[in-house]
TrEMBL record:
Biological role stated in the UniProt entry: Major role in the synthesis of nucleoside triphosphates other than ATP. The ATP gamma phosphate is transferred to the NDP beta phosphate via a ping-pong mechanism, using a phosphorylated active-site intermediate. This NDK is microtubule-associated.
Keyword annotations from UniProtKB, A to Z: ATP-binding, Kinase, Nucleotide-binding, Transferase
GO biological process: CTP biosynthetic process; GTP biosynthetic process; UTP biosynthetic process
First-to-last residue of the parent protein present: 61 to 215 of 216
Protein name: Nucleoside diphosphate kinase
Length: 155
């Protein structure tokens, strides 16, 4: 659908364990940086099982849920908070469709992944979930409040 990009939002973006294992961390971060979003939080993190379950609680009745939790906790992830005008919907576009075979070339999943169960990156699906997920994955003091000198050139 059409992106209505009018307000400054935050999105929780996470490089999943396959993205870390495959050495795609720099490549993925670079796409959000180049687009013009602002990095407000960043850490490498071994996710405990209960946090993965809380993050994906809406999917708890799905048959793939146990496998999803195992996957997300199988190695370190890179947790990020990205800020910008319309960042939530825009990040979803940059990431591409859930099934990487359906993701357009040029998107992260379209370029870098093959399987739904190994789709290298997560992005919040609404501004409210962006807030919820950033609060879930980051502790107070882990986010940086800063402004880029480029902001006037971006917004
Ligand atoms: P994400 O939350 O990771 O950004 O992904 P999404 O919104 O594109 O997809 P969602 O439907 O919320 O599913 C979350 C993650 O669960 C895994 N999944 N596996 N085996 C399967 O059929 C299946 N379906 C979903 C994927 O890792 C998906 O990103």
């Amino acid at each position: 659908g059409r992106i209505v990009a009018s307000s400054v939002e935050q999105s929780y973006i996470m490089i999943k364990p396959d993205g870390v294992q495959r050495g795609l961390v720099g490549e993925i971060i670079s796409r959000f940086e180049k687009k013009g979003f602002l990095l407000k939080g960043l850490k490498l993190f071994q996710c405990p099982k209960d946090l993965a379950q809380e993050h994906y609680k809406d999917l708890k009745d799905k048959p793939f849920f146990p496998g999803l939790i195992e996957y997300i906790t199988s190695g370190p992830v890179v947790c990020m908070a990205w800020e910008g005008v319309g960042v939530v919907a825009s990040a979803r576009k940059l990431i591409g469709a859930t099934n990487p075979l359906q993701a357009e070339p040029g998107t992260i999943r379209g370029d870098l992944a093959v399987q739904t169960g190994r789709n290298v990156v997560h992005g919040s699906d609404s501004p409210d979930n962006g807030k919820r997920e950033i609060a879930l994955w980051f502790k107070e003091g882990e986010l940086c409040e800063w402004e880029s000198v480029l902001t006037p050139w971006l917004i």
